[in-house]
Amino acid sequence: MTRIEKLQTIGPLALCLAVIGAEMAASALALRPSTEWLWYLNVNIFNMFQQTHYLITAFLGIDQPETVLIVLPIGLLAALGLIFKQRLLLALSTNFSFVYVGAVAYYWVLSGPMTPVASLSPSGLEFHASAAEPNLALLLGLAALTLISFLASHIFYIRKSRILS
């Protein structure tokens, strides 16, 4: 595995692990609802995935749509790209993972800890990051890792196009 392939796998792998962790925490909480640390994980760490889950479930009407329709295909594309040495599949998984993390961030900010304020801004809402620091740390970590993968795939294709032309 080349260094560029290793960089490209970081983002999709981190995203898959984070979503699987969120799903496992939610399932464990359903089994043991009195466990305090599981509540902390669901409310403070994986809340952004929960908000995205609510939005996608309301739109599509199926259970666990982000896992089945988004994260599983991203992981499958990355795995197939590595197994069959298809750089396009790996690049697609890096791009999709970066876009999905951006969508999660967007939906989380829309539904996150906002309070009405007296403002001249059109929305009249202000985002309070201090109320969501664990979520923000996970989001920034995922954004950084998927951005590294995203940039690595683009750098590879830019170099490849310069060699060919």
Layout of helices and strands:
Layout: H1 3-31, H2 36-45, H3 47-60, H4 65-83, H5 87-111, E1 114-116, E2 125-127, H6 133-164
Antiparallel strand pairs: 1-2
Helix pairs in contact: 1-2, 1-4, 1-5, 1-6, 3-5, 4-5, 5-6
Provide structural commentary.
- By secondary structure, this protein is mainly α.
- It has one domain (3-164).
- It is 78% helix and 4% strand.
- It contains 6 helices and 2 strands, in the order H-H-H-H-H-E-E-H.
- It has helices at 3-31, 36-45, 47-60, 65-83, 87-111, 133-164; strands at residues 114-116, 125-127.
- The relative contact order is 0.16.
Summarize the model shown.
With 165 residues, the chain is mostly helical. Helix content is 78%, strand content 4%.
Tag the structure with descriptive keywords.
4% strand; 6 helices; 165 residues; 2 strands; mainly alpha; two-stranded antiparallel ribbon
How much is the radius of gyration in Å? 18 Å
Q: Kindly, what is the distance between the CA atoms of the first and last residues, rounded to a whole number of angstroms?
A: 26 Å
Mean pLDDT: 86
- Silhouette: elongated
SSE-based structural type: mainly alpha
Poorly predicted parts: none
